[in-house]
């Protein structure tokens, strides 16, 4: 019985939401009532309910001047509730329907859509969104923000294995308008990038050559514990293989030699990899003195990564 009454009451609200315009008596919901209710839910961090109520406001009052604001806030609510894909779709709709790319809500939608893609672990799309906006906007402040965001993404990507985008970061920072370069401390950011590029490195080739002596490559990469373990393990297996052959046990010697070949190859490959990791860590350590890398989580690929949290 209670459920029936609630359903009937909800139906009356939906039907009579249009009643104000038609001048019929009944239960009225004004645009102010609906918008304020949605905003209250948003302020209370009930983002799931807030985005529903903002969508309801858009549906019932499509000509209200707060239409774009409601659409944008609904997208932010989706983003903050972790629905990044739906948030990206909402912001994309605002961008496509806008006749002027430089309206406040359209501009903010581009930045938020970029953040939504980034939160999904798709930095490529995040950059494309901003680059598309950059081609269309004439607002200098917006361009500066985009250059800074792109630089931040390139610096963050550099923290990922196998990527070096510091040159792209530098190019974007240098495009920031002269008036804003001091405010955003661009000179300091560029100096940090230059220091990272010129950081002391280890040669992967030399690490591999030194690894001919088990543990030598690891010792060169300043990983003394790994060097000691590698030396003991490999020399131990080599001695065991020699002893087996010396005692006329070729079968055992062959098995040990086969196993040692794998570990010996791993010692060389591990030394080369250690050199690459050393170089990456050296750059991150220098960048971290200016920027701030913190662990992040990619909800799509379910993997951890380093996230740049420093604000320009």
UniProtKB/TrEMBL annotation:
Residues 1-19 form the signal peptide. Keywords: Signal. InterPro entries: TPR-like_helical_dom_sf (IPR011990). The keyword Signal applies. This is Tetratricopeptide repeat protein. It comes from Desulfobacter latus. The lineage of its organism: Bacteria, Pseudomonadati, Thermodesulfobacteriota, Desulfobacteria, Desulfobacterales.
């Amino acid at each position: 019985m209670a459920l029936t009454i609630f359903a009937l009451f909800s139906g009356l609200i939906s039907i009579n939401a249009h009643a104000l315009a038609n001048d019929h008596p009944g239960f009225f919901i004004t645009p102010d009532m609906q918008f304020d209710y949605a905003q209250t839910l948003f302020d209370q961090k009930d983002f799931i309910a807030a985005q529903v109520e903002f969508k309801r406001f858009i549906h019932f009052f499509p000509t209200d001047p707060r239409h774009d604001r409601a659409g944008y806030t609904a997208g932010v609510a989706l983003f903050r509730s972790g629905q990044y894909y739906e948030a990206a779709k909402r912001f994309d709709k605002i961008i496509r329907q806008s006749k002027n790319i430089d309206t406040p809500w359209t501009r903010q939608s581009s930045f938020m859509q970029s953040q939504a893609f980034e939160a999904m672990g798709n930095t490529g799309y995040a950059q494309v969104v901003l680059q598309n906006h950059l081609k269309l906007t004439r607002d200098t402040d917006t361009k500066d923000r985009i250059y800074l965001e792109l630089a931040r993404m390139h610096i963050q990507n550099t923290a990922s294995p196998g990527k070096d985008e510091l040159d792209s970061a530098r190019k974007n920072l240098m495009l920031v308008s002269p008036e804003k370069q001091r405010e955003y401390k661009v000179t300091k950011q560029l100096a940090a990038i230059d220091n990272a590029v010129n950081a002391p490195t280890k040669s992967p080739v030399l690490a591999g050559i030194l690894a001919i002596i088990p543990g030598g490559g690891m010792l060169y990469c300043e990983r003394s514990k790994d060097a000691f373990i590698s030396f003991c393990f490999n020399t131990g297996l080599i001695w065991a293989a020699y002893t087996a052959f010396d005692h006329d046990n070729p079968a055992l010697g062959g098995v040990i030699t086969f196993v040692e070949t794998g570990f010996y190859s791993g010692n060389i490959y591990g030394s080369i990899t250690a050199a690459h990791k050393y170089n990456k860590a050296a750059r991150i350590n220098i960048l971290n003195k200016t920027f701030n890398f913190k662990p992040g989580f990619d909800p799509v690929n379910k993997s951890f990564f380093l996230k740049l949290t420093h604000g320009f």
